[in-house]
Amino acid sequence: MKNKALSKRMRNNLLSYSFILPNFLGFLIFTLGPILFAFILAFMEWDGNHAMKFVGFENFIALVSNQRFLAALRNTVVYSLATVPCTLVVALGLAILLNQNIRGRAFFRTVSFFPYVASLVAVAAVWNMLFSPSKSGPVNMILYSLGWEAKSLPAWAASRDWVMFTLVLFSVWKNMGYYMVIYLAGLQGINSELYEAASLDGAGRMQKFRYITWPQLKPTTFFVTVILTINCFKVFDVVYMLAGGSNGILNTSAIVLVSHIYEESFGKWRLGYGSAVAMVLFLIVLVVTLIQFKGEKNYANS
Amino acid sequence: MQTVDGNKYRNILYRVFLYICLLLLTVVMLVPFAWMLSSSLKLNKDIFVFPIRWIPEPIRWQNYIDIWKRIPLLNFLVNTVKITVIVTAFQLLTSSFAAYAFAKREFDFKNQLFLAYIATIAVPWQVYMVPQYIFFRQLGLNDTHLALIILQAFSAFGVFMMRQFYASIPDSLCEAARVDGMNEYKIWAKIMLPLSKPALSTLTIFTFVSTWNDFLGPMIYLRTDTKKTVQLGLRMFISQYAAEYGLIMAASVVALIPVLIIFLSLQKYFVAGIAMSGVKG
After folding, report:
1. Chain B residue closest to A248 (CA)?
2. Which residue of A44, A166, A240, B111 could cross-link A272, Cys pair, CB 3.0 to 4.6 Å?
3. Within a domain: residue A271?
4. Are A90 and A17 in the same domain?
5. A13–B107 CB contact, under 8 Å
6. What pLDDT is stored for residue A104 in this prediction?
7. Contact A234/B at CB under 8 A
8. CB distance from A6 to chain B under 8 Å?
């Protein structure tokens, strides 16, 4: 009797595993494996060909004295600190605008979503032309005709002072449509009776925003902030294409963490050191994720 | 009476303000694309003429003919379509298959297995892209499309998304089918799969767009020019012929079109997918 029950349970398990297996096998070998390997590699010295050597924390010690790493870390943090609030504000404004009863709403929503789905290589090529550092670049032409002095026209991504600004501006433009959609869903989840009651009490638009919309959207804002922060720390392509020139080599005013991982690993084949940089990236993302878990619990309770 | 008039006046003002914002938005969003299209139909020397001439005079279609000869663009497109379609198909099939077990069946180690999936979603790909590459190289898959396909075909995100959707389908449907003597594979194929069309569409468009636009993956794996994807090929062209603005823009337009078509036809599901992930948080 007991045997029969056991075999039934085994059969049930095997049947379930057969569903999971095709995906799990690929996942285990090609994702989970490399992740565990990355943790080990961070404590090794390896060029990918010769024997691996255990070096303890040496890679991490090397990080602290590497100017390019420090620049990459600082740039990534600055980029995130600027991009997250800007994108948040623009996305929220956009969502409120496109949640109004206006003509052609569907069209405008599609339009604001366009840059997000468009290929980065293609739109970056356009931006590089529009924000050309020379005086003949269209944006500089407009600034010049508005009275900006010809000598002090910004060189955008080609200048140390403007490169971060250009990257942030581009990122906000490219991604705001995505976060707008999340905000739109949040706005549509607000009980309309709240607004009706506020109208009866004589509340104006600003007051409604301050006392209803903003507090009601708090969980959404929290979620958007977390996702945005994580995505900002993973930045690579945008920097590579806007600030990398023709060979993709970045100077210390624009280098970010992922570029540093890339150049050290695939350029110099210092795989252990590259993995140590990757661990720093992982730790930052992990902290943000843990904050999210904690925050979600709070919102679920209240 | 006066306050009613005042309100009306304020409302009109507000609406004017709204439409000005909308106009501004449309300009900011679309001008780069208009510039791209316009420049793709111009001679290089006419592109940086100021004030900007939006409709080229004369219209130069030649760029769209030359571009196919200057770089193996067709080759790039075929490679990208191949990779994108196979990845999307694999992703849909294996994800929905695994998600069925996670959502509708009870078995040992279910929670532990699912936790493994969730945990890896939190690890950015950039963290393990290097060891993953070394592993593929060891398997002899360096510079192959197969490596890129495998790389993206088994995502944890797909399983997670499909499971969330399946969980919202009532269990009683499966129970009833079981009573009718349907086996589990049939229930997945005949009941769950047809019901999950919206989720499958969402997963399709997400996978399609991200695979089509992927840059770092192909950059790491593909060496041979004829194996490159559209994004990589386009970037290569841009860095080699930086001054061929007209051709670069024409190639960019070509690289954009497939994603645009997919996006416009499946837009509804894209928005639904993002909204779902947002509301969840």
Report:
1. B239
2. A44
3. yes
4. no
5. yes
6. 86
7. yes
8. no
Residues A235, A81 contacting (CB under 8 angstroms): no
Together in a domain, A64 and A37: no
Q: pTM above 0.80?
A: yes
A7 and A102 belong to one structural domain: no
Split into its structural domains, chain A has a count of: 2
CB atoms within 10 A of CB B2: 6
User: Choosing among A27, A141, A287, which should be mutated to test the B contact, i.e. which has the most B CBs within 10 A?
Assistant: A27
Domain-embedded: residue A163: no
**B253 pLDDT exceeds 70?**
yes
ipTM: 0.89
Say if A138 falls within a structural domain.
no
Query: Is A238 a domain residue?
Result: yes
CB atoms within 10 A of CB B76: 25
* Fold adopted by B64-280: MetI-like fold (1.10.3720)
Identify whether A138 is preceded by a cis peptide bond (ω within 30 of 0).
no
Interface touch B260/A118, C-beta < 8 Å: yes
Of A229 and A3, the one with more pLDDT: A229
Instruction: Measure CA A276 to chain center.
Output: 21
CA distance to partner chain A, nearest, from residue B60 (Å): 18
For B:63-92, CB contacts with A below 8 A are: none
Query: pLDDT at residue A195 above 70?
Result: yes
Q: Average the pLDDT over A230-257 and give the result.
A: 90
A15: containing domain = 2-41
Same domain? A201 vs A237: yes
Is B253 at the interface with chain A, CB within 8 A? Answer: yes
